[in-house]
What does this fold into?
Amino acid sequence: MIWNRRRGRKCFLWKLPLWLCVVTAGWVYFTAVFGFYLTNSASLQDPDNVSYRGHLKLEFPNTSAFQQSEKHQPGTATRRNLIIIAHGRSGSSLTGDILNHHPDVFYMYEPLQTVERTRKYFKVDYNSLVQKFLTNILHCDFSEPIFLADIESYYRRPLHPRISRAIASPPLCPYHMSDPRWDFRLCPKLTRETLGNACKNYYKLTVIKILMKRMGDKSLEKTLSACDSQNINCKIVLLIRDPRAVIPSSLSVNFYKEEGGTAKLGTRMFSYKLCKETEDSLHFVKKLPAWMRRQVQVLRYEDLARNPLPEMRRLYKFAGLSVLKRIATWLNESTHPTKSRSNMKIKGSPAAFTVDDAQAAINRWRWKVHPYEIAIIEHYCKHVMQLMGYRPVDTSHELQANISIPLVNDDYEAKNW
It folds into this structure.
């Protein structure tokens, strides 16, 4: 009902002037129509983000990050990078050192330790800081003073100078490490200019190795997003080792604490977590488009330990590096030493020491770990073991103790992806 008064017509429902009712209704109608137009316009302009039913699709990293052909803007150079991703105690130090020895490689050993040590100085969350730091490294950008100071402190320690041959060699140090005059104390202080210049102009390939526990969200997908740049070329080596070797070794270096007495709750929780992360990474790789999958190499530590020279050649071919005789000689001596590891004099950091009898390293867990603990690990890691060709012992003393029986199959599911 509408009626007239001196002050004009009014709307019965809202007690407002009629002209205001009309304007309000018109504005609501316009907003609805315009909002509908914007929504549909956005979906038409970016159809790859929406499926035909309106659900979000899985977004892979920018394809330019993985293009093998160097498509980039005129005047810019595509930086080649290789990232080794592994759980701790998986042989990542040896794998990284194989690349560290190549003269064309700028190698950084576990650079995400810098993020762990310096995160308190930044007002951003850990995952964002990891992305920022990785992106900077992949561009040879060391302009952040806090990061640079930590890198200087870490690589100039007495135990760590050989951990990166590039950072301990000219132009960052006066002598090559093979020179008898070489002394890390003679190396001048690192600056953003000297480190960035060495990375960009003296080495063709940047290689970093990172542990899964330090990755953003423990996610391979999140780590790959650091490669999302037009002038970055990334390849990934996903290194995997038998969890029956990795998990007891992780306990021995306090990566986790045992709990629950004989129930071994610590081992149960760590086994579940480690193998879940590994399985998620493998399935992520499997789902990649074929052309992107070729930018990822799944490497078993056991293959590298049993056949170091053929696997080194395969790794170098994937990285685009030439095989040098002196590196092959070094690797053969490192994996077939004349002394047992317990009788060796370790130079530098024990964590980065890579000399070990390869065959002994593969089977060491078989005589060091109690069958009960092995049964726990096999229970939580059975899917990963199946994917990677690790044969379970299923509480068989004969299978575990008799090292003449191989527990690593040459053919396995993930090999054929």
Summary: DSSP finds 17 helices and five strands in the chain. The longest strand covers residues 232-240. The beta strands are 79-86, 105-109, 205-211, 232-240, 296-300. The longest helix spans residues 18-45.
